[in-house]
Amino acid sequence: MNDDEPRFVISEAAVLAGMHPQTLRQYDRLGLVSPRRARGRGRRYSPRDVAKLREVYRLSHEEGINLAGIKKILALEERVERLEGMLEALALRADPGRRVFAAASSGDVVIVPRGRRASVPEGDERGRSSAGRRSEGCGRPRE
Questions:
Q1: What is the Cα–Cα distance from 80 to 87, expressed in whole angstroms?
Q2: CB 38 within 8 A of CB 45
Q3: Above 50 in pLDDT, residue 134?
Q4: Using one digit for the tens of pLDDT, what is the confidence trace for 76-90?
Q5: 128: which strand partners?
Q6: What is residue 121's three-state secondary structure?
Q7: Beta strand 43-44 with 109-113: parallel, antiparallel or unpaired?
Q8: CB neighbourhood size of 19 (10 A)
Q9: Among 27, 25, 29, 26, which residue's Cα sits nearest to residue 52?
Q10: Using 50, 70 and 90 to split pLDDT, how confident is the model at 133?
Q11: Is residue 129 a contact partner of residue 135, using CB atoms and an 8 Å limit?
C-alpha cells in the first residue's frame, strides 16, 4: 500500500497517533501536519501523516521543542528529502563520461559533456576579461 494514500478520518488518525482529535486540528491550522481533504471537506490522514504526528509528539514531549521549532525541523527534513531526490535523479542521468555540477542561468543543475564548458548567456561577461578569456584564478588549471 502507498504511505501517502489518505485512509484515516480524524478520529482514527488521532487514535493511531495517540492524540486527541482537537490536537490534530490544531496541528493542521499551524501547518505542522496538513492532511488531504475529502469531498465533504473532512480531513483524511495517510500513514505518512500519522507517522509525522507521532514525530511531532515525540519532539514536543520528549525533546521539549516548541511547535514553531518543530515546524522548522519538519520543513528542513522535507527540503533534505526533496534535494536527495533531485541528487538521486541527477546521479541516474549521469554516466562516467558526463559532469553533473554545472548550473544553468535558471539556477538548475545541468549535465555538461566532458571536455565542454557550460555556455555563458549572451551579455553576461562575468568571469571573463576584456579579451574574452577567463579571468585569472577562475576555472580549472590548464594541463
A1: 10
A2: no
A3: no
A4: 999 999 999 998 888
A5: 134
A6: coil
A7: unpaired
A8: 18
A9: 27
A10: very low
A11: yes
Question: How many Å apart are CA 56 and CA 58, to the nearest integer?
Answer: 5
What digits encode the pLDDT tens for the residues 27-46?
999 999 999 998 888 899 99
CA 53 to chain centre: 19
| Separation CA 15–CA 19 (nearest Å) | 6
Grid cell of 76 as nine digits: 528542513
Alpha carbons 30 and 24: distance in angstroms, whole number: 10
Domains of the chain: 10-65 (1.10.1660.10)
Degrees to nearest 5, angle at CA 100 with 94 and 103: 145
| Cell numbers given for 142 | 590548464
- This prediction's pTM: 0.61
9 touches 42 (CB < 8 A)? yes
Helices (H), 62-122: 67-93
Q: φ, ψ for residue 12 (rounded to 5)?
A: -70, -45
pLDDT of residue 92: 75
Single-letter code of the amino acid located at 54: R
Is residue 63's pLDDT more than 80?
yes
